Amino acid sequence: MSPLPCGRSIDELVAYLADRDDPELTAHVAGCAQCAAELAELEDRWSSVRLVAVTPVPTPPGLVSRVLAAVHGVRPRLGSAPAGFDQDGGRVSVAERAVLAVCRRLAVELATGLGLHVRGTAVEDGELQVLVAARYPAPAISVADELRSQLSRELVEHLGDAAPVVHVHLIDIG
Amino acid sequence: MRGNAAAFDQLVRRHTVRMYRVALRIVGDPVEAEDVVQDAWISAWRALPRFRGEAAPSTWLYRVVTNAALAHLRRKKPTVPLESAPEPRTSDGPEASLLRNETTDVVLRAIAELEPTQRVPLVLRELEGLSYEEVAEVLGIAVPALRSRLHRARVALMAKLGEQR
Ligand SMILES: [Zn+2]
Asked: Which of A132, A141, A157, B153 lies at a CB distance of 3.0 to 4.6 Å from B122, suitable for a disulfide?
């Protein structure tokens, strides 16, 4: 970066702005009109960054519930456990967890390719339910159908006979 | 597992708003930010058996959401032209200061143009207010390396904001 007439650089002033831990530069700025002017301009820009830091970010309504639903969808369900099922990491549980994980991963990959956003996956009674959101209403329904057929094909490839029937539900548009 | 699940749901309730904020500031789009938050919580759930308090939960979760956001940026295809991307929805009423929104939009757009390797530390340090040590731990890099990344990020951001005037 090009130096100021006094030999200091904007880079140095930016570093000074963030940390203020250079007593030698503090002394210089106090006596240098160019640096003082540059620093004032940089401080103005920096204050807009500080403003962003304290400006609250609006959270989409229902976000926490959707996240909880998504997390529950990749958890083995206690109710669906066969007799003698070991919930604390037994072999059956491992297999079920793997199926849930594969369903979720493939759903997200394929949905992303189609411009859809997965908002939850769950296996209920051996069938996979996928909840998706779409930005644009017009193509959303045919794209959701496309997701269902692609996902069914991929799941059969990965899981064979263990592949669940797939349902895709559009829950949010736009 | 039953106890773990309840404790984990509690983590989700407590930290999702913050995770979303970080994701939004890194990926710059509310719909994609929600994708990131979901991915982050699902990897957190899978990693839970390995998480035994080696870091504070908040540090761990910052790392999880940061990694999910970076993975999202890597696989994102630039298909939607920027001008057709929808405006972020805000819950502010019309009485909210227009000037303030304009300023924050300008800054967020400038941050979104930074390289991800600069953007992520900048968001964690300057917007989330983490210490240098905390950011270095989240990113798994040494403090001196972090300082130099942050310096480049600040210089680039100040230059971009200068162009806006
Ligand atoms: Zn000077």
From this structure: B153
Average pLDDT of adjacent 10-residue blocks, chain A of 174 residues: 83 89 89 93 94 90 90 68 42 68 89 88 83 79 90 91 88 72
What is the predicted ipTM? 0.81
Task: Tell me, in angstroms, the distance from the centre of ligand 1 to residue A14's CA.
Answer: 13
What pLDDT digit, counting tens, does each position of B78-91 carry? 544 444 444 444 44
> Residue A58 and residue B8: Cβ atoms within 8 Å?
no
Whether residues A57 and B16 touch (CB distance < 8 A) is answered with no
Spell out the domains of chain B, with CATH numbers in brackets: 5-163 (1.20.140.160)
Q: What type of residue is A86?
A: D
Angle CA B152–A39–A22, to nearest 5: 70
Q: Does A117 touch chain B (CB under 8 A)?
A: yes
Which domains does chain A carry? 10-54 (no CATH), 63-173 (3.30.300)
Tell the residue number behind the tokens 């300057």, with chain if given. Answer: B126
Q: How far is A2 from chain B (nearest CA, A)?
A: 13
- How far, in Å, CA of B109 to CA of B87, rounded? 12
Kindly report, residue by residue over B122-138, the tens digit of the pLDDT: 999 999 999 999 999 99
In whole angstroms, what is the distance from residue A172 CA to residue A66 CA? 12
* Residues of B whose CB is below 8 A from A53: 126-129
